[in-house]
Design goal:
Elements (H helix, E strand, L loop, with lengths): L4 H6 L19 E6 L5 H13 L3 E7 L3 H14 L9 E3 L2 H8 L3 E4 L6 H10 L3 E4 L7 H9 L9 E3 L7 H11 L6 E11 L2 H5 L6 H4 L3 H4 L2 H11 L2 E9 L10 E8 L4 E7 L1 E13 L2 E7 L8 E5 L5 H7 L10 H14 L7 H20 L3 E2 L8 H4 L43
Parallel strand pairs: 1-2, 1-4, 2-3, 4-5, 5-6, 7-10
Antiparallel strand pairs: 7-11, 8-9, 8-14, 9-10, 11-12, 12-13
Helix pairs in contact: 2-13, 5-6, 7-11, 11-14
Bound molecules: nicotinamide-adenine-dinucleotide.
Nicotinamide-adenine-dinucleotide binds next to loops.
Pfam family, one: GFO_IDH_MocA_C3
Organism: Streptomyces armeniacus
Protein name: Gfo/Idh/MocA family oxidoreductase
Amino acid sequence: MHVSKRFLAHCSLPDGVFPTSAHPFEGRALRAAVIGTGAISRSHLTALTELAADNEVELVAAVDVDEAAVAAFCAVAVAEAAATTHPAPRPYTDLDLMLAEERPDLVTVCTPPTLHRAQSVAALRAGAWVWCEKPPCPSLADFDAVEAAEGTDGGPFASVVFQHRFGSGTRHVRRLLAERALGRPLVAHCQTTWYRDTAYYAVPWRGRWDTEGGGPAMGHGIHQMDLLLDLLGPWTEVRAMAGRLVHDVQTEDVSTALVRFDSGAMATVVNSVLSPDEVSRIRVDCERATVELTHLYGHRNDDWRVTPAPGVPEAQVAEWRDFGPDVPSSHTAQLRELVASMRAGVRPRSSGADGRTSLELITALYKSAFTGGTVRAGEIGPGDPYYTVLHGGAPGWAPPDSTRKTGDTGKTGDTGNTGGTDNADDTEVAA
Ligand SMILES: NC(=O)c1ccc[n+]([C@@H]2O[C@H](COP(=O)([O-])OP(=O)(O)OC[C@H]3O[C@@H](n4cnc5c(N)ncnc54)[C@H](O)[C@@H]3O)[C@@H](O)[C@H]2O)c1
């Protein structure tokens, strides 16, 4: 089979796992399709184009209910793919038709969150692996329905776009923390303090539970919380507060939380759209060093800082500060790993339980904030009002007409809204 050296250099499969010669993708580029051709789809196109140049994928189709949008996307795809020999992707306005005609191996979902469940399930049932934008789904119930539609042995699996987990900086720090090279992690801070003005919230679908899914905890802070969990491992309990301090919204515009981890470490989490001095930050104080990431919408090696505790030898510090060749966090970095997992027939990172962790923490954050209690990991399941909707029906937070249905409509074109989401707020391309 063809797997380029450049491609393998970027892959990080679990130890001892190699692409098998018996896999159905052997010897050919993976057939990929994009659903939803709005703002974030351009980051998917960049990633797909880079892998197409290595003959790892071929973009065969794109789908959008907006005919002009999908036509424009396909035109850009053709222009960007000039270096490859692949034919132009075909535009569709009907997802089911695309799945039937194109039989893609991989579908990337770039539509608003309310569509993620039905479209991911449709793609899995058609045999395609799924790479779905954050937030993965509006609720844990929706996430579990997607997971239930996955294949059992060798895929197809559905993974979530959490590009901040990928790249050389995160990989280096994750290894240092996992190996306890810096000693035990003790105290952490996780901060998404951004600024969104009144005009931003004048757009009708913003600030609403049914169309946006949640406030800044869900829509903006999810990347940093997901990265915190990726670095520190399982959490055990959360206590939180949420407020509407400025904007006329159904959801919160700020939240704070205290999180305890399995390891014993404790973290503060702040998610705000009220902060004129915008920053995304993660800081972990360990016994032997503090490691800190400061950026806004994406990071590279220079955005990480390691500060040793007194007495740590210089040579040791130099090793900790050696992040290796710079691979910025990006959709491309995550897609390379995903494609490697597909070729190996193994569950990719950021899927299944690993892809669910930040959604569970956010759900628990809302439950704690709205009930005033401590919420423990694993306690929100079927029967819990927060399992199906993040406001949990809480007085003062749930909209007056909140009788949200949670069943799978099975309708992949059921827009629920007209496609508007956070199109310029949390990606490095929009920074
Ligand atoms: N990973 C990141 O950093 C990042 C950044 C921005 C947005 N996002 C996420 O990406 C997703 C999309 O956001 P966006 O900003 O690109 O939104 P957008 O509004 O710019 O684009 C959404 C597209 O989906 C299309 N659409 C709507 N209903 C459809 C249907 N039934 N079938 C097919 N297409 C349909 C719309 O016509 C539109 O073109 C959201 O979940 C958002 O949170 C992620």
